[in-house]
Amino acid sequence: MAYKYVRIAGNRRQVGLALGKLARPIMGTYLDQSGTWSALRPWRGHPFVDDLAQQAQAAMPQIWEELEGLAEGLRMPVSDVLLWHCRGDLLHSTTDGCTSVARRAADGSRWIGHNEDGDPFLYGRCHLVDVALDDAPGYLSFYYPGSLPGHTFAANRAGLVQTINNLRTRQRHAGVPRMFLARAVLDCTTLDEAVTLLREQPHAGGFHHLLGAAGDARVLSAEVTPGSVSIQEVGRRYGHANHMVHAATRGQPQLVTDSSRTRQNRIEGLVDGWLPESTHADMLAALLDTQGKLPILRTAKDDPDDENTLATAMFEITDEAVVLRVYDRKARADIALDVMSDPE
């Protein structure tokens, strides 16, 4: 498998500490080879970063405590760990990609699928973390070394599902860093609570959130950017890559890479071809599609965005349960977990 499964439990600081210790062996090497980290270092000590820190601490003190624990586990300054978490708020382009799909089945079940695309260095070096918190539902999430969970694919024990796609907005606003907001969604217990969070907090950066929940018939597509939140209910089928496509947001300044444009066109074409009797196998086939020079499944060493598919997730959502299946570039799941059941 391209990742390892790890269980973590405790209070906020203890969970952050454990996540930091998990990443510590490779974090130095990871950052040394990262062009994103090179581009971030000139921002050290910048007043705008101090403002982002103040807003994060004020709006989300519990998640800030996780960040402090993470820094302790990594043995890195909190300021550098914060800077790493602000990469998408400060830089117009980072090595975070992804493609998401959704389908509402005739039997009432909802399906959300996702390719997690990131720095090719991380292939085989990530984790699936199963986190139990003292004061929140707890969650299962794909974990990038040294980054708080939530900005990849995840579901919590309350049955809330979230997948994240990078948006390369050309705006910078003072607000809560986007990775803090994505993490905070995993503490919500309903779709409405998550929507309220995304609408009410000031946003420093941009993400696309695809959201679903057990016991809620809706699937929501949210493009959250500095100064704007657009939320649409998904119909029978949906696909999204790495740029804003909602009518309310697509006119905002953004960077649309050739890969994102090609993947968006391809996923829309595949999704539009799904029949009412199509199944999750068709969704998985779309995420594993290799057609063209810039395919949806990304494994090329010369990928123009410096991104490769690190894992593929498929969430089955019903009124009573959420089942997560994770795949490693193939049509057979490596792991299947009922997110809402207590871990053994």
The gist of it:
This protein has 344 residues and is an alpha+beta fold.
If helices are DSSP runs of H or I spanning 4 or more residues, what is the number of helices?
Answer: 10
Derived structural class: alpha+beta
Per DSSP, what share of the residues sits in E-state strands of 2 or more residues? 25-35%
Distance between the termini: 21 Å
- Give helix % range: 25-40%
Strand arrangement in the largest pleated sheet: 1-4-5-6-7-8-9-10
The count of DSSP E runs of length 2 or more, i.e. the number of strands, is 14
Question: Segments where pLDDT lies below 50 for 5+ residues?
Answer: none
Which descriptor suits the 3D outline?
globular
Organism: Achromobacter mucicolens
Protein name: Peptidase C45 hydrolase domain-containing protein
Domain Peptidase C45 hydrolase: 107-326
InterPro entries: C45_proenzyme-like, Peptidase_C45, Peptidase_C45_hydrolase
